[in-house]
Every structure is written in C-alpha cells, then in structure tokens.
Amino acid sequence: MLKAPYVTNYLTEHFGEDDYGTLEGYKRRGGYEAARKALSQMSPEEVIDQVKDSGLQGRGGAGFSTGMKWSFMPKDSDKPKYLACNADESEPGSFKDRIILERGPHLMLEGILIAAWATGAEKTFIYCRGEYAFPGACVQRAIDEAYAAGVFGKNALGTGFQHDVVLMLGAGAYICGEETGLLESLEGKKGQPRKKPPFPAQYGAFGMPTTVNNVESFSHVPFIINNGAEWFKGFGTDKSPGTTIFGVSGHVVRPGLYELPLGTRLDEIIFEHAGGVPGGKKLKGAIPGGMSMPILPAGQLEVPMANEFLREHKTMLGTGGIMVMDETTCMVRAGVVISYFFRDESCGQCTQCREGTGWMHKVIERIERGAGTDRDIGILEDVAAKMEGQTICAFADAAAWPIQGLLRHFRNDFEEHVSRKKCPFSESFEL
Amino acid sequence: MVISEEIRAKIDAEIAKYPVKRGALLPALHLVQSEHGYISNELAKELGELFEIRPIEVMEVVSFYNMFYDSPQGRHHVYVCTNLPCSLRGGRDLLRQLESHLGLKPGQTSADGRITLNHEECLGACGYAPMMRVGAQYYENLDLEQAKKILSELE
Q: Does A322 contact B at CB distance below 8 Å?
C-alpha cells in the first residue's frame, strides 16, 4: 500500500490510518454522513447547485466544473442514466488517484453515491486501469462491504434510492482515460474516442445519458456537502478552489504525494515540500501537470499552480503530476521518451495523430543521435502545429504540446545536437 | 469447449452486471487469459460464440490492449517502467541491467518459459521509481540487487 502523502489536508487527512479504507473505519470518522444528508435532506437540484457554487473543477486533467457537468444530464429522460468513474489514471507523472483507491476508496464511493442522487443515475461503472490490480482489489473490497451494509443496492442507506456500482478493469491503453474512449472500452470495444457531439450526457455508456468524473473529483464532493460551498472556497484561489493531491517525481529529494491548496506556488512545492534537487544540482525545468502539459524552465517556477496562472505561461495544471529535471538532463532525450509514449499510445483512428506522433518521435530520435539537420527543428514545429486541434479527441494536442514546450524553452538543446552532430549532455539519463 | 466451467460461471456473473452482453468482454478476456495465458484463435472463436460477435472482433480487442496477448508468454511478466519519471531515476539502467542478468532483450521469454521481460509505459508509480511490475504485483524504489532477488524467487 502506498505511503500516506507527506502533506495532508481535508481530503487525505486520514490516509495514514490503515482502517480508513474499511467501512467501519470510514464511518467512525463521519463517513457516509454527507451522502445520508444529500439523499434524505436535499433535492438533486440542491446538490448540483451546491457543487456548482463550490467551484469544484474536475481533477482528471481538463478542469471543467463538476457541478456544471452534472447539470447537463437530462432531467426528463426515460432512459436509464449512468455514471462512470474514471480510475484509468495513466498520465505519466500522475499517481494521486491510486492513493485514493488504496487508502480512501469509501471517500470516492460516497462521492459517487451523492453524484448518483444528483443526476438520477441508477448505476456507476468504475473503470480502473488494468495494471492497478491492487488498488482495484481495494475498491472491490470496499464495494462489497458497502453492499453488505446496505450503502448501495435497492435501498441505498435506507433512503429508498437505488444505486448499483460495478468495477471494471481495463487492459493497458492510455487512451481509455479519454472519456469517450473509456465509454467504448466499457462496452467491450477498442478504446477509440467518439466524435462529439453527441456528448456523453446525451449518448454515453451503452447509448444512455452518462456523466464521467475522475476519482479525485468524486472524492471532494462529501466535504462540500458536509461543510458547504463557502467552506470549500476557503481553500485555493478565487477561480480554482479546493486542494488537490500533487504528485512530485524526478529529480527531487522527496518524491511523493502532497495535498496542497490549488494556487500553491510551483517553486514552493518543489523546494520547500519536496526538498529541492538532490546533490546540490540546479533545476533545469519542470513539467507542472502530467506529461501532456508543456514544461516550464527554471525561471518560471514562481507560478501559482492553478489554471488561471499557468495559462499565462502557456501550460496547464493537468493532473498535478510535477516532473522535475535537473541541469544534467538532456531535453532532447526527454523529448524522445515523451514522443515514444504518444506514438505507442495513439489509438490510430485519426491520421494527424497516428502519423504525426510517429513523425515527431522519428525526428527527435534522429536529432538525439546527432543525425539531425537544420531543417528538422522546423519539421517538428510544423508537424506539432498540424496535429493540434485537428482530431477527434485531445490526444493529438496532448502529444504536440509537450514537444512545443521543449522547443519554446530549450531550443538551444536541440540546436546544439544538430550543430555538434551528437548529444552534448554526457551526464544525462541514458536512453 | 476449452474454457473451463469455473471460468465460464465467472464470465456469466460478469455479463449480469452490464446492460449489454458485450460490456463484459474485457472482464471475460482477463478471466480466460488467467486460465490459458493468452487468447488463442480457438478461445477467440469460443468467446465470439458466447458474446455473439465474430472471432475477429474478439481479436481486434485483444490486439488493441497491451495486457492481452495473442501468443504464449512466459509464466511471469516482468515489466520495467521506462517512462520519463522512471527514466530520470534510473528505470532504464535497471532494465538494461536486468537484460544482461537474464540474457533477454525486451519482449523475449527465457528458454525455460519462466520470465518474459519487457519495458512498459507509465504505471502510476512515478514517486517510487525505479519500479517494475511482475504480473499484478508492483515493486517500487528498487535497486538491481533487490530486483534480482525478486526474480530469483519466481517459480
């Protein structure tokens, strides 16, 4: 089981206590009281309004308003409605949902039950990445316990509301974290994203109205219901309220998880919380929000970690997965690793993405080998620009952005490879 | 019938959870693979009949997902993460050292059928790198000696 976060706040307050993952331990700390309150004292509209008012933004990467998303579910549909919980955490640099699945599964399940009440959903499909066998087993155990105690089923918490929960394990495909890729996979198909519209709230899992939320997004909801929207807005920034679980990896003294308010400065997270760069080395750059998000150079780390500030630096919060690279790191090699990943994971249905990810990897790999020419950097920029905004889903953008970020801030690294016809970084990690 | 009664019963229980039968295809593939190690053409045919789809549609799904196999594998899958967070903390060095220790290249299986070695993309263990996955089990904050010991204990 993962260690509790180094810094905790309301969300992970009890993650260091092993019995918090059990129903009894969770209830002893006030668990399922928020769901009881929502289901017996609040109308679905009141729940949606409260979550909307709280300003909670989805924690899966896109940062869309959770309450707004719930409000898109049709109110007068005679079709069954579903929720999907996105536990397909696969964004490189991200490992925050895993700790909720392992140490706080009931927190997520309580959020799910509240969301089900708010949207009128009769069933939730939790889609967990296949490699998360242990986290998945922790969730299944929690589901079984919850059913046995009448939390779910025909008469959830004794309120007469019916809700069922099903856990499905994926099988190793990054694209299934894209919400419509996830829905296709739930239906037993290749996880190739759907064209939108129709959006999932109209045509989701098995053709029924569906809302897809991330594990952490659900997990904030019980606190909002218990303490109110104003309380929630007391954390974070005006536009990005609440805390999130930042994952810090790479060249830091204390890699791991840190629950901090949104808007905490990136340099504070890296140097004060994670202990800075080991071995007295200087920091060269940091990716702020999972590998899809453009990198920031050492000079731009004073930025508060919230989208309204990160956007000014042409990057985004994403999943809050922070990857730190020290001065020995070759940014072209980083580009080889990044572009290989996207080439490997492209689902292949859009030409711009299928071909573009391959081109980018081929060209960066050539530059790294010392076989690149003056034209190659231009080719990279051209390919990246032609992938952006051209495809069915945001995967191609996510593949283009980090490469554009490397070229924006570390163009010198690329140019030196070309002019010296070899990699000039002898101390960098080897490919 | 190649799929055992026991697995068949578990597949039926999965099918009951979904509004459409095919929703249980991924769970069924996991179950069948746990029994047979990979999805052969014969198994694809049987699953096709069960799910009322063509065998090619089963294999389409098998080939799309990294965790499903269409050919025999070693008894233990050893995957070393080589994505960026792990690369920054020695994931690639660990893989190279295991390659020479086992005498295998990524994707190869040992002659005794014990181990298939490979690299893998991000496994959500970025703060605990380097790491490897052996079947369902994660091993984190590894060094070469620990990794060698873990591998030597595999049957």
A: no
Contact check, Cβ <8 Å, B121/A131: no
Chain B: closest CA distance from residue A249 (Å)? 5
CB contact (8 A) between residue B68 and residue A90: no
B108: its two tokens? 């190869």
Contact B61 A190 (CB under 8 A): yes
A331-420: which CATH topology? de novo design (two linked rop proteins) (1.20.1440)
Q: Average per-residue pLDDT in chain A? A: 97
pLDDT greater than 90 at residue A391: yes
Reported confidence tier of residue A174, pLDDT bands at 50, 70, 90: very high
Query: What does the DSSP assignment read for A63-118?
Result: --BHHHHHHTS-SS--S--EEEEEE---STT--HHHHHHHH-HHHHHHHHHHHHHH
> What CATH number does domain A243-326 carry, 1.10.760.10, 1.10.10.10, 3.10.20.600, 3.30.70.1230?
3.10.20.600
- Could you tell me if A257 lies within 8 Å of chain B, comparing CB atoms? yes
From the number of C-beta atoms within 10 Å of its C-beta (0-12, 13-18, 19+), residue B91 rates as buried
* CB within 8 Å of chain B, chain A residues 9-38: none
Give the model's confidence band at A375: pLDDT under 50 very low, under 70 low, under 90 confident, else very high: very high
Alpha-carbon span A293 to A314, nearest angstrom: 9
pLDDT, residue A76, reads 87
Identify whether B117 is part of a domain. Answer: yes
Residue-range definition of the domain harbouring residue B146: 76-152
B17 and B38 both lie in a single domain: yes
Tell me the two tokens of residue B73.
Answer: 């594998």
Q: How confident is the model at residue A213 (pLDDT cuts 50, 70, 90)?
A: very high
ipTM: 0.97
CA–CA min distance A167, chain B (Å): 9
Is the CB of B138 less than 8 angstroms away from the CB of A250?
no
Judged against a pLDDT cut of 80, whether residue A320 lies above it is answered with yes
